[in-house]
Amino acid sequence: MKYTAIANTGVEVSPIGFGTVKIGRDLGVKYPDTFTIPDDQQVLKLLDICRELGINTLDPPPAYGNSEQRLGQLLKSAQRQQWIISSKAGEEFDPLSGASNYDFSERAITASVERSLRRLDTDYLDIVMIHSNGDDLQIIEQHLALQTLAKLKQQGKIRAIGMSTKTIDGGIAALQQADCAMVTYNLMHRQELAVIEYAQRHNKGIFIKKAFASGHLQQQQYDDPILSSLKLIFAQPGVSSAVIGTINQRNLRENVQKYQRAISEISL
Ligand SMILES: NC(=O)c1ccc[n+]([C@@H]2O[C@H](COP(=O)([O-])OP(=O)(O)OC[C@H]3O[C@@H](n4cnc5c(N)ncnc54)[C@H](OP(=O)(O)O)[C@@H]3O)[C@@H](O)[C@H]2O)c1
User: Fold this and answer.
1) Which atom belonging to ligand 1 lies closest to the Cα atom of 247?
2) Shortest-distance Cα residue to atom 38 of ligand 1
3) Which pTM was predicted?
4) Could you tell me how many helices (H) and strands (E) the chain has, helices first?
């Protein structure tokens, strides 16, 4: 798989990334079917398949239950260099209430990043994005959350900074101050294309979340919703990586196989 450099940070990501919601949390999630959180052996097997297939990018933010603690224990420090760890800060998930709390203050963001470093047993994070609650511009302009990440980057704790946004204006504003953004872009949600195009024009990175509409595509009228999704996404040269959430080994392999087929069919 051809890796993509994120802005001028030196961070190189695989076109398919490994989303970890289902490794750390089964409460407050929007998947069509219930699922059992995989045990350590199953998670190690999924990570082995990722490595075998060339997937190097993992997305375990604190809001995904204990996925970052689990990866911190399961990822041997010897292998640390082989993985791109893309974390987030700003959202905390409370399993008791089943709801998320948000705090974008400098104190909270800094404490969250320091905690992620400890939990993941590493002295740097490859990517950290602000985990927006949707008030993208307020988080950027009033909480100055990206400036907080920029300070942590200067301290060598983060290699690339960004924001997982929910609005077009927010995505573009984030890219004006950061190295990358994470946006939703799929067959059922194409509104944020302008953010992807802005990133391409300005050599910034783009991560796609909900590439398969969190599993709700199956119900739609597509012959092959997985292939159609990947062709839509990778037809955009501005896309660096699609972070896909799966705990199914067969689906993990299929997604890479269909990615290869998608790019071979897309005449870029
Ligand atoms: N605000 C944010 O920053 C934000 C929000 C949402 C998501 N994300 C990130 O983006 C990642 C992906 O988003 P997502 O997990 O919501 O949804 P998604 O990647 O669009 O879809 C995941 C769903 O699709 C199913 N799936 C995956 N491959 C499949 C295949 N080949 N055939 C059939 N079904 C398949 C998975 O089930 P199986 O497990 O059975 O494969 C799972 O239910 C997350 O894991 C997270 O890392 C970030």
Assistant:
1) 39
2) 246
3) 0.97
4) 10, 12
